[in-house]
Design goal:
Layout lengths: L6 H9 L17 E12 L2 E9 L7 E3 L5 E7 L7 E4 L24 E6 L4 E7 L10 E6 L2 H6 L2 E10 L4 H9 L31 E4 L9 E3 L5 E8 L6 E4 L4 E7 L2 E8 L1 E4 L4 E7 L6 E8 L5 E7 L40 E10 L4 E4 L10 E2 L5 E8 L5 E5 L4 E6 L2 E2 L4 E2 L1 E4 L4 E7 L4 E7 L2 H5 L3 E6 L4
Parallel strand pairs: 1-4, 3-8, 9-12, 11-19, 20-23, 22-31
Antiparallel strand pairs: 1-2, 4-6, 5-7, 7-8, 9-10, 12-17, 13-16, 13-18, 14-15, 14-17, 18-19, 20-21, 23-29, 24-28, 24-30, 25-26, 25-27, 25-29, 30-31
Length: 471
């Protein structure tokens, strides 16, 4: 790994308060990185909380790989309970995907270490527990794989992981949204505090105590010092378990460079939707006159917001209220329809086509695919080498961010209208909408396809793709 570091990258390291915007120490290609899954303490709005974390031995969160570096990582489980970590955005062999549901591996036992070794896919990605509800307790962190183009850009890097936070345990949160005292997902729940809905559409499953940007709220936000007239590459990750955001850039000029780690034709943006599991790379240009500039993520359908502040040297920091003046509406596909992949799929007709209907409701709180839960799923059977198209049809009254493991797909149609859209691994499917995705079956195995709202997945909205020599 290169030890070279520009002034802008040094600024990023200084401004990120010990988070993943700093460079890792140089390592030989054969030396594994270490990640420790453990418990840690944070302070949320003045109140201490015990949460999980994914940290390097130096205590910094997450992982950054340099261009061309292989993903060689040892995960040490110090959580005190079984866990497993999914590498969201990577496309490893199925036995290294970091899930137990497909039967390849067991959870990592407390005190045990698991080695992962596969070619790294460049881009802004992240990692999180795929075991039980641990993701809700902040067992998540950024995973950045730099490319040579990233280095040539020579912009200050700022990495932000958004999350939703509750002082209640994840099991209590699930019991609240299901309206049950335990984990009986089939029981019809009563209306529970924290659930909100409308006759036409449901937006949020639960009212959290706080919404976090790199573990902090606007009560004590992360302030990143920048150069006047400088450029910032903002890698923004929605790691929230059940919350979608509108991202507001205010007075800043921004060019959208990539989504879900995949380059798109540059697009000027000032406001954009970000569903659970999705990522965006933004190139921000700071004004010559300097100043302090908040980057705000506001919860869809509500006033709550979080974010960070970019500030040039000597600029006064003005407090940003964590409540906006007015709520915002549901996130939508207004950005999706404008995106164009830099490296789209080759022009080819699908060899295999499937339709998957997104079903379920808030009452009873059960979410399914084609009316089936994971326990009685019907896998999508495909064959190696096929071009596969899937129509994701949302017949429920809530939008769903659908995530496919082991592959990146292209968004090729919305409500039947053809587009040459972005290459992604997670796409929003709004209410009464059909989103068509296409991908090449080039990574044989059994692969999860699920809603990236953790509680929707936990109550049944998950199935699998299956191909090659698997039964």
């Amino acid at each position: 790994m290169s030890a070279k570091c520009s002034r802008r990258r040094l600024l990023a390291s200084a401004g990120a308060a010990g988070l993943v915007a700093s460079l890792p120490s140089p390592l030989s290609a054969a030396t594994p990185h270490q990640l420790i899954a453990d418990r840690r303490s944070i302070v949320v709005n003045g109140k201490p909380a015990s949460v999980f974390g994914l940290r390097r031995p130096d205590g910094q969160s997450g992982l950054i790989l340099d261009p061309g570096e292989r993903f060689i990582v040892d995960v040490l489980n110090r959580t005190g309970e079984p866990t497993i970590i999914h590498w969201h955005g990577q496309t490893p062999p199925p036995d290294q995907d970091g899930v137990t549901d497909t039967g390849y591996v067991a959870p990592i036992a407390p005190g045990a270490t698991q080695r992962y070794d596969f070619p790294a896919r460049p881009g802004t990605h992240w990692m999180h527990s795929h075991h039980g509800l641990q993701e809700q307790a902040l067992l998540a962190a950024p995973l950045i794989v730099r490319s040579a183009d990233d280095i040539r850009l020579d912009a200050q890097e700022v990495i932000v992981l958004l999350h939703d936070f509750s002082f209640r345990s994840p099991a209590e949160v699930l019991a609240t949204v299901t309206g049950s005292a335990g984990m009986n997902h089939g029981a019809a729940p009563a209306m529970a505090h924290g659930r909100r809905g409308a006759a036409a559409m449901d937006l949020n499953d639960f009212d959290y105590d706080a919404y976090l940007a790199n573990d902090r709220t606007f009560t004590d936000p992360m302030v990143v010092r920048t150069e006047r007239s400088g450029r910032v590459r903002l890698r923004l990750i929605n790691g929230a378990t059940s919350t979608a955001f509108w991202v507001e850039l205010g007075a800043l000029r921004a060019s959208l460079l990539a989504v879900d780690g995949n380059p798109v034709a540059p697009l000027d943006v000032r406001r954009l939707p970000l569903a659970q599991g999705q990522r965006v790379d933004l190139l921000l240009t700071l004004p010559a006159g300097g100043g302090a500039f908040p980057v705000i993520a506001q919860r869809e359908g509500d006033r709550q917001r979080t974010g960070i502040i970019l500030a040039s040297p000597g600029s006064a920091i003005t407090r940003v209220d964590d409540l906006a003046d007015a709520p915002v509406g549901a996130i939508d596909l207004s950005l999706e329809t404008r995106l164009a992949a830099v490296e789209p799929l080759t022009n080819r007709q699908p060899d295999s086509r499937h339709q998957l209907t997104l079903t379920g409701s808030m009452m009873p709180y059960v979410w399914t695919l084609d009316g089936r839960s994971w326990a009685n799923r019907q896998p999508l059977r495909i064959k190696t080498g096929q071009r596969v198209a899937v129509d994701l049809v949302n017949k429920s009254q809530m939008g769903h961010p659908m995530h496919l493991h082991g592959h990146h797909f292209q968004v090729v149609a919305i409500n039947g209208r053809r587009i040459t859209g972005a290459v992604r691994d997670t796409v929003l499917v709004p209410v009464d909408t059909t989103v068509t995705i296409a991908f090449d079956a080039d990574n044989p195995g059994r692969w999860l396809l699920h809603c990236h709202n953790l509680f929707h997945m936990a109550t049944g909205m998950m199935t699998e793709l299956s191909y090659a020599d698997v039964s």
